[in-house]
Request: fold
Amino acid sequence: MTETARIPAPSGPQRHAPATLRNRDAILAVLRGVLPAEGEVLEVASGSGEHCAFLAQALPGLRFQPSDPDPDARASIDAWCAGLPNVAPALALDCLALDGAARALAPWPALRAQAVLCINMVHISPWAATLGLLAGAAAALPAGAPLYLYGPYRQAGQPFAASNAAFDASLRDRNPAWGIRDLEAVAAAAAAQGFGPPAVTPMPANNLSVVFRRA
Reply:
């Protein structure tokens, strides 16, 4: 599946995230080696829904369950994914509804999935949302199943790209609780939820694909 894939032009409730067109093929290339051939994929913080629509068309053997806490985002997701037989209606899931100990503050539904995806959320949300994501994914996934994260991270011993430093500053100006996270801190929080060490793939524009698997 390439940039010529059928993605309708935005209209009505559909939102458009320009970065999707720039990163979706690179993400798909990694996911082809990560996701199972069939089964349920839960996407957390689906945003506009463009990634879900693109991946669902490229990977027809999988069933996608998108989600987002924002009702306008869910309307956009459902509009982008309309007519795709392997995409369910978007769910209202909020990572801030779970704490790092997996105690449900406002419980997610009883979800089961063979993979969990979360693209570009960890840095545009409070740290508590990452802890909630890890807790929710741990509850939803069986042993060996992947949690896939995409976005920019700091890595110990690696130079922090100037573009990422500027992006981090702009995020913290918008909301002091946001910001690019230390990958080692995310990995430690994931380990506390029963995930193994991350497999990391460098991506375009100083992003990373990070895959955790349930131990």
Summary: The CA atoms of residues 14 and 79 lie 6 Å apart. The domain at 18-213 is CATH 3.40.50.150 (Rossmann fold). Strands lie at 39-43, 62-65, 115-119, 146-151, 153-154, 181-182, 199-203, 207-213.
